[in-house]
Design goal:
The complex is a heterodimer of chains A (114) and B (113).
Chain A (H helix, E strand, L loop, with lengths): L4 E3 L2 E4 L5 E6 L6 E7 L6 E7 L2 E5 L7 E4 L6 E5 L8 E8 L8 E2 L3 E5 L1
Parallel strand pairs in A: 2-11
Antiparallel strand pairs in A: 1-3, 3-8, 4-5, 4-9, 5-6, 7-8, 9-10, 9-11
Chain B lengths: L3 E4 L2 E5 L4 E7 L7 E6 L6 E6 L5 E4 L2 E6 L4 E6 L8 E7 L9 E2 L3 E6 L1
Parallel strand pairs in B: 2-11
Antiparallel strand pairs in B: 1-3, 3-8, 4-5, 4-9, 6-7, 7-8, 9-10, 9-11
Classes of the chains: A mainly beta (114), B mainly beta (113).
């Protein structure tokens, strides 16, 4: 499979717990993005990595959120002290530099905070 | 100024008909306008994209029309098929060193057999 892989596909957690999601981008892509999509809305940008460097973070990414991309390969997104408002689909995408058509999304991780 | 407004919210089209979805933007710095198709439980998939130096781009049954002066662009799906039933998102981005997409709110298309 040469697509963007995300794990887990679904996560149900209790309010206040920490959760971590993983994204494996297409191997040749050095750019990696995280987006959040709530029900009935379009995806919203969260953060961007070029190789292992996190170059931009949205204001949507509060202090409870942290993302990493060690060694410029897979990426993790951690949410600490989850709140009900964090319930959403978390999408990862990857791309080649400067090639807009190379922007490929994974199937996402659906988080439900109860 | 970062918003992309999309309409309609939902659309029902008969098989063989033309589906038309419209988007409008404010930020004239946007220079790339893609359309994404999303099926339930899946991530968005790039359908077709256009840059503002052309007014129309066609790929198979899908056409983007772009009106730079009106700051509007639209997706036309010709000969709509039941398999086209999905949610469609327009998006826009500008060259800031990387591609940060601003998405519309989506249009849920149902093509009836």
């Amino acid at each position: 499979d040469t697509g963007v892989s995300q794990d887990p596909r679904h996560k149900i957690t209790k309010r206040g717990q920490n959760v971590t999601f993983r994204c494996d981008p297409i191997s040749e892509h050095n750019r990696l993005y995280w987006y959040r999509q709530t029900l009935g809305q379009g995806p919203e940008f969260l953060t961007y990595f070029q190789n292992e460097a996190q170059l931009e973070k949205s204001r949507l990414l509060s202090d409870r959120f942290s993302a990493e991309r060690p060694k410029g390969s897979f990426s993790t997104l951690e949410i600490q002290r989850t709140e009900q408002g964090d319930s959403a689909m978390y999408l990862c995408a990857s791309s080649f530099p400067g090639v807009a058509d190379g922007y490929t999304f994974g199937s996402g991780t659906r988080l439900t905070v109860v | 100024q970062q918003q992309v407004k999309q309409s309609p919210q939902s659309l029902i089209v008969q098989k063989g008909g033309i589906s038309i979805i419209n988007c409008a933007y404010e930020n004239t710095a946007f220079d790339y306008f893609p359309w994404y198709q999303q099926f339930p439980g899946k991530g968005p998939a790039l359908l077709i994209a256009i840059r503002p130096d052309v007014s129309e781009k066609k790929e198979g049954r899908f056409t983007i029309s772009f009106n730079k002066s009106a700051k509007q662009f639209s997706l036309h799906i010709m000969d709509s098929q039941p398999g086209d039933s999905a949610t469609y998102f327009c998006a826009a981005s500008m060259n800031t060193g990387f591609q940060k997409l601003v998405f519309g709110t989506g249009t849920r298309l149902l093509v009836s057999p």
